[in-house]
Q: What sequence folds into this?
C-alpha cells in the first residue's frame, strides 16, 4: 500500500468508525429521525451543487479569512499528480508512459498553430510564433520581424542570461549584431521588444538592433501565468499567492490593488491565489487597466480570445463536505441515531475550518463506534464503505468542478460573466471561443473507486452550459485537445490512445463523430491542413509524431507515424511554441533531446528530410524566405529549404 492509498484508507476508516451509529442493519440501531434535526439538503455542500455568481470582498478581513479557510481544506478525492505548467496542467499518473523524469512532463501548458507570415509585395516571408489564436501573439524565447531575430535561451549551467540579436536581412549570411542583458519570454511590438522574466518585465527600443536601449522596467511580485500581444496592447495574467499580510496586492510595479476589489465567486472555491489580468502599454510599461479574480494555482487553465481573458478556478469537495453530504442523504442519514444526527447537524453552524469540522465529525462517529462489538463494527464498515462509494459515483460530477470567469478586454478590463462545469481542464487548449460560445474539455477525476471520465461542454455568451458530450475515455484522462471551427479533437489515455473527433456545429447538440484507438498518446494536436491533424506525443517513452486523416470525421485514420527512437523527449510536449510548420514547403519542425528534426508530411507520409545536430538539443526554429534557422544553446544552423543542405553555422 503506497503512502497516498494509506492516507485515504486511514481517513475512510476514521469516518467508518462512526458509520456504525444507528447503521440500521438488522435493526441494530433505531433509525427514526427526530423532527428537530435537519440533515437534508445533501447536495448543498458539494462543489458543483450551485452556479456561482460574482461578488467582491466586504473587507480585507473577509479576504484573508476566505483564503486562509481554503488552505485548511482537505480534498475528499484523489487528484492526479500535477507537473509544472504554464497556463495549464499536465497531469501524470503512476502507470502512465509519460517520461516526466526526462524533462518532458510540462506538456501542453500552451500550444497552438503556426501561420506563415508574409510581408508586403517583394518582402521576404518569415515565420511567426506558433499560437492558439492567429490574431494574438504569444510569448516565446524566439521572435523575428524578418530583418532581426531575438533569441533568449537561458543557459542554466553557465548562468548565462542574455538575449542575442541576429541580423537576418540577408538570409544567406546571418550576423550576430548585439545583445540585451536580460533573458525571458519575448514579445515584439513594433520597435519595442518586451522581455518577461521571473521577477521583472522590461521593454527595449530595438529600432536600431545593434544598439538596443532600455525604455522601461517593472518589478513583479507575482508570477506571469501567460501574456498576449493584441492590436498593439500587451495583456498579462499575473498570479499572486497571498501571504500572511496580503493586502493590498502589488503584482505589477508599485500599482496597488485593494483586496476589496478582488472578484470572487459567491460560493467557496479552492482559492489559493489571485489572478490579475492587466493591460500594459508595451512602449512605456504603464498599467492601463486591470481586474483581479481569486483562482487556483493547480488544476486550472487560462485561455485568451479576441474578446476576453478566461480565468478558471477549482471547486473541490473536501473530506468533511463529502461525508457530511452523504450523511444528509436518505441512506447515509439512516446510519445515524438521534443523538449523532443532532451533533452532526450542529457542525454546520460552527465557525471553524473545514479541517477542524472533519476532525469533529470523526470524533462524533468514533463515540458511537466504541459502543459496538467487533461483528457489528465489521458489518457496518462494509455497508458504509459501499454506501459512500455509491454516493460518490452518483454525484461524481458534483465533487470537483471548474469555475470560469471571463474578463472582457473591450474598454476597461472587467469580470463580466461566470460559469461552472464539472471536472478540471488540462491547459489553454482545453478552451476555445467560437461564434459566441465557449467550448471546454475536462477530466472528471477518479474518486473512491469510481473511474475517471472526460467531458466536453459548450457554454453560451453568459457562460451557461447549453450542450455537452460526456463519458469519453472511461478510466482515462485527457492528454490533448484541439478545437478548430465546428470540429473538436480530444485524446485520452491510460493504456491506449483514443483519438476522438467531435461535431460541434450545433452548440446545443454536440456529438462524437468517430474514435480511433492506437498505441502511445498525443500531447499536442496541430491542424496541418483541412483534412490533416498532427499529433505529437510519446510511445514507449520516446517522442512520436502521428498523422491523422480526418476527412471523414466518422472514420478518422492514422496515415503514418514516426518515433524518434534516439530521443528521450521533445519540447513540443512541453510547449507548443517549440513547434513550427512551414506550409509553403509542406514540412514541420520538432526538436528532440539530442537533435532536431524536419519532416515532410505531404502525400500522407511522414518523411524525415533533415536532422540537425547542435551538440545538444535544438530549442526553436524559424524561417526567412527559403532558409530554415534552427537555434540551439550555443549556435544556430541555417538550412536551405529547397535542398535541405546546411549552409552556415552562427555562434551566439
A:
Amino acid at each position: 500500500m503506497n503512502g497516498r492509498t494509506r492516507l485515504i484508507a486511514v481517513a475512510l476508516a476514521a469516518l467508518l468508525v462512526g458509520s456504525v451509529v444507528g447503521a440500521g442493519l438488522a435493526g441494530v440501531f433505531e433509525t427514526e429521525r427526530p423532527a428537530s434535526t435537519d440533515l437534508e439538503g445533501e447536495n448543498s455542500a458539494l462543489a458543483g451543487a450551485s452556479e456561482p455568481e460574482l461578488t467582491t470582498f466586504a473587507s480585507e478581513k473577509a479576504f484573508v479569512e476566505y483564503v486562509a479557510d481554503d488552505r485548511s481544506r482537505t480534498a475528499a478525492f484523489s487528484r492526479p499528480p500535477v507537473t509544472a505548467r504554464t497556463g495549464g496542467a499536465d497531469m501524470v499518473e503512476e502507470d502512465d508512459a509519460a517520461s516526466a523524469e526526462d524533462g518532458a512532463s510540462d506538456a501542453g501548458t500552451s500550444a497552438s498553430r503556426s501561420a506563415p507570415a508574409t510581408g508586403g509585395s517583394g518582402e521576404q516571408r518569415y515565420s511567426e510564433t506558433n499560437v492558439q489564436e492567429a490574431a494574438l501573439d504569444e510569448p516565446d524565447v524566439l521572435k523575428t520581424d524578418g530583418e532581426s531575430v531575438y533569441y533568449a535561451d537561458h543557459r542554466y549551467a553557465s548562468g548565462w542570461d542574455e538575449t542575442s540579436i541576429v541580423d537576418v536581412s540577408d538570409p544567406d549570411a546571418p550576423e550576430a549584431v548585439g545583445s540585451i542583458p536580460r533573458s525571458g519570454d519575448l514579445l515584439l511590438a513594433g520597435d519595442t521588444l518586451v522581455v518577461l522574466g521571473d521577477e521583472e518585465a522590461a521593454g527595449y527600443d530595438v529600432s536600431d538592433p545593434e544598439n538596443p536601449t532600455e525604455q522601461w522596467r517593472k518589478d513583479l511580485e507575482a508570477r506571469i501565468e501567460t501574456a498576449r500581444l493584441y492590436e498593439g496592447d500587451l495583456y498579462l495574467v499575473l498570479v499572486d499567492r497571498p501571504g500572511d499580510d496580503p493586502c493590498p496586492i502589488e503584482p505589477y510595479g508599485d500599482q496597488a490593488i485593494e483586496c476589496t476589489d478582488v472578484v470572487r465567486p459567491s460560493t467557496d472555491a479552492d482559492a489559493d491565489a489571485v489572478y490579475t489580468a492587466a493591460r500594459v502599454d508595451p512602449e512605456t510599461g504603464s498599467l492601463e487597466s486591470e481586474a483581479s479574480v481569486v483562482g487556483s494555482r493547480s488544476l486550472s487553465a487560462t485561455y485568451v480570445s479576441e474578446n476576453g481573458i478566461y480565468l478558471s478556478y477549482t471547486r473541490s469537495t473536501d473530506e468533511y463536505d463529502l461525508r457530511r453530504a452523504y450523511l444528509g442523504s436518505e441512506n447515509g442519514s439512516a446510519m445515524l441515531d438521534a443523538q449523532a444526527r443532532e451533533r452532526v447537524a450542529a457542525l454546520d453552524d460552527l465557525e471553524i475550518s473545514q479541517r477542524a469540522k472533519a476532525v469533529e465529525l470523526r470524533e462524533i462517529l468514533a463515540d458511537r463506534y466504541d459502543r459496538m462489538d467487533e461483528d457489528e463494527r465489521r458489518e457496518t464498515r462494509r455497508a458504509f464503505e459501499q454506501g459512500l462509494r455509491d454516493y460518490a459515483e452518483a454525484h461524481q460530477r458534483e465533487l470537483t468542478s471548474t469555475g470560469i470567469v471571463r474578463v472582457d478586454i473591450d474598454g476597461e478590463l472587467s469580470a463580466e460573466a461566470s460559469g461552472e462545469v464539472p471536472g478540471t481542464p488540462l491547459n489553454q487548449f482545453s478552451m476555445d471561443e467560437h461564434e459566441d460560445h465557449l467550448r471546454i474539455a475536462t477530466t472528471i477525476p477518479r474518486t473512491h473507486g469510481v473511474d475517471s471520465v472526460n467531458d466536453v461542454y459548450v457554454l453560451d455568451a453568459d457562460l451557461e452550459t447549453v450542450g455537452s458530450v460526456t463519458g469519453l475515455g472511461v478510466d482515462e484522462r485527457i492528454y490533448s485537445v484541439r478545437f478548430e471551427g465546428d470540429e473538436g479533437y480530444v485524446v485520452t489515455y491510460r493504456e491506449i490512445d483514443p483519438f476522438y473527433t467531435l461535431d460541434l456545429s450545433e452548440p446545443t447538440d454536440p456529438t462524437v463523430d468517430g474514435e480511433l484507438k492506437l498505441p502511445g498518446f498525443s500531447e499536442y494536436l496541430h491542424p496541418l491542413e483541412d483534412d490533416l491533424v498532427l499529433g505529437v506525443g510519446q510511445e514507449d517513452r520516446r517522442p512520436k509524431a502521428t498523422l491523422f486523416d480526418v476527412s471523414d470525421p466518422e472514420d478518422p485514420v492514422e496515415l503514418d507515424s514516426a518515433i524518434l527512437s534516439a530521443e528521450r523527449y521533445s519540447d513540443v510536449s512541453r510547449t507548443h511554441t517549440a513547434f513550427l510548420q512551414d506550409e509553403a514547403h509542406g514540412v514541420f519542425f520538432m526538436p528532440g533531446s539530442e537533435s532536431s528534426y524536419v519532416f515532410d508530411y505531404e502525400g500522407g507520409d511522414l518523411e524525415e528530410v533533415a536532422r540537425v545536430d547542435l551538440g545538444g538539443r535544438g530549442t526553436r526554429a524559424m524561417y526567412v524566405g527559403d532558409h530554415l534557422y534552427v537555434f540551439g544553446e550555443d549556435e544556430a544552423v541555417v538550412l536551405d529549404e529547397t535542398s535541405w543542405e546546411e549552409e552556415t553555422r552562427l555562434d551566439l
Notes: The mean pLDDT is 84. The chain is about 15% helix and 40% strand. Helices lie at 3-19, 60-71, 319-328, 330-333, 338-347, 354-369, 374-394, 396-399. The radius of gyration is 27 Å.
